Amino acid sequence: MVLVMLAAYAAVHLVPNTSSKELWSENPVSIVFAATTGVGSVRDSFKCAPPVANVNLRTTVNDPTRISLTLGQYNIVSCGPTFTTITITAKCLVSSCAGSYTGTIEILRDEYTIIPTGLTITIIVE
Q1: Cβ atoms within 10 Å, residue 33
Q2: pLDDT tens per residue across span 84-93
Q3: Does the 2-125 domain belong in CATH 2.60.40.10?
Q4: Domain definitions of the chain by residue range
Q5: Do 92 and 66 contact (CB within 8 A), yes or no?
Q6: CB-count burial class (<10 Å; 0-12, 13-18, 19+) for 5
Q7: Is the Cβ–Cβ distance between 104 and 60 less than 8 Å?
Q8: What does the alpha-carbon distance between residue 89 and residue 8 come to, in Å, rounded to a whole number?
Q9: How far is CA 108 from its chain centroid?
Q10: pLDDT confidence of 48, banded at 50, 70, 90?
Q11: What is the pTM of this model?
């Protein structure tokens, strides 16, 4: 019964919000860095139409035990007609993390409502 309730909640609340869309200045982006350095970053900008107040950003990465993906700012006062620039940083979490990874950034208008389409990030550790 609990699983059915959770599935119903997810179906209603974890769907993309079709009333607002974001635009990234570059999508996808790449972060490339040497394993000896252990960290790399890139800057990108986004805006929303129509504007949305008090948005949050959420990062995901395909192998969170080996690499992290962080932002300089997670809470944004508003996502509107002018671009907001953020710094995206990838960091090795283990001594040997050479390889390719993928990550995403999603913009949330509240804790559960995702504004489509998200930013795709390719992380290459050489």
Answers
A1: 19
A2: 999 999 999 9
A3: yes
A4: 2-125
A5: yes
A6: exposed
A7: yes
A8: 35
A9: 10
A10: very high
A11: 0.81
